[in-house]
Automatic annotation (TrEMBL):
Name this polypeptide is given: Uncharacterized protein LOC111284878 isoform X1
Chain's gene name: LOC111284878
Organism: Durio zibethinus
Length: 316
């Protein structure tokens, strides 16, 4: 446990997990230093649109499903007022960067300071590779890290950057998400260069890289299942074993867990997070060697808030 609160940066690659290649060296480098694992999701509703999926999965990441269901008319008008991020997490100041209009609206509803991603890396006519250093610097400055030093207080305690779904870069449809992955790789490299082990920033920055698969189908199931091989071959065996923690919410079972295509997460803070045996940012390596195994996606923010001294410890 750190002797001072961390400041959190979450890079969320929405739909980028399937585009990671060996040439994307920075996610692999981070995974080799970090504590890695899976974030489980529920099954998607039938005929869900891409716009709806983006907001729903983000709502899960920040444990704001009540606000999401209320927004989509699935709860009564008598539902209680949705608490803001600050109210839920001891005054935590949180910012969300995205270009998705629906996600901007939802973020504002749950108390994020929502900022347009184009504000940071310029208009779409500028080559993104030329602006990653500036973007990394801007993100860190918002957290109170400037010129290698830690300011007494930053503008925010937590910054979440949403990249993906082919809308952030001005490229042809079908190539957008792969280009987003290139951009994410370069940005992560720029941040890791500044926040190296032993530096002031490295000791206080809690960095999370989250990669989702976006829209998934049954075709993804065989290769991306988080179930143990024995359960995959004989599902009846599951009745003989206790439910794993990601299948539970408190004492109640989660009955709609999707056992394939989870989000992948690597978390790193020098001398704070544990290192596991993972060497590459890949589903196969995480399943075989990760230290964090699988937790529900809606528990992630509670884990991060604990590191920021904005929430009690979740889990063991």
């Amino acid at each position: 446990m750190a002797d001072k609160p961390s400041r959190g940066l979450v890079l969320y690659g929405d739909g980028l997990a399937r585009f990671i290649e060996p040439s994307h060296t920075h996610p692999h480098s981070l995974a080799s230093k970090a504590n890695c694992g899976f974030l489980s999701l529920p099954n998607a509703p039938p005929s869900e649109s891409e716009d709806v999926r983006i907001v729903r999965e983000f709502a899960l990441l920040v444990d704001a499903c009540e606000a999401y269901f209320n927004k989509n008319g699935q709860k009564s008008q008598e539902s209680s007022v949705i608490p803001t991020m600050s109210e839920r997490f001891m005054g935590m100041r949180a910012a969300l960067f995205t270009n998705n209009s629906n996600l901007k609206s939802f973020g504002e509803k749950i108390g994020f300071s929502v900022l347009d991603l184009n504000r940071l890396y310029g208009n779409s006519n500028s080559p993104p590779a030329l602006s990653v250093d500036k973007l990394a610097s801007e993100l860190l400055t918002l957290l109170g890290f400037q010129e290698g030093k830690i300011m007494e207080s930053g503008q925010f305690d937590l910054v979440i950057l949403h990249i993906g779904s082919g809308e952030n870069l001005n490229v042809e449809e079908g190539k957008a998400t792969a280009s987003d992955m290139e951009f994410m790789n370069a940005l992560l490299g720029a941040i890791m260069l500044v926040a190296q082990p032993g530096t002031e920033i490295g000791s206080r920055l809690h960095l999370s890289l989250v990669m989702g698969y976006g829209y998934v189908s049954k075709a993804d199931d065989p290769d991306l299942s988080i179930l143990s091989p024995n359960f995959e071959k004989n599902p009846h065996l599951s009745a003989l074993f206790p439910r794993q923690s990601y299948n539970m919410r408190g004492e109640s079972p989660r009955n709609d867990v999707r056992h394939h295509s989870p989000m992948l997460i690597a978390q790193y803070q020098y001398a704070v997070t544990r290192k596991d045996m993972v060497e590459s940012f890949s589903f196969e390596d995480f399943k075989e060697h990760s230290g964090n195994l699988t937790i529900p996606a809606d528990r992630l923010l509670h884990e991060i808030a604990f590191k920021l001294w904005k929430a009690p410890k979740y889990g063991a």
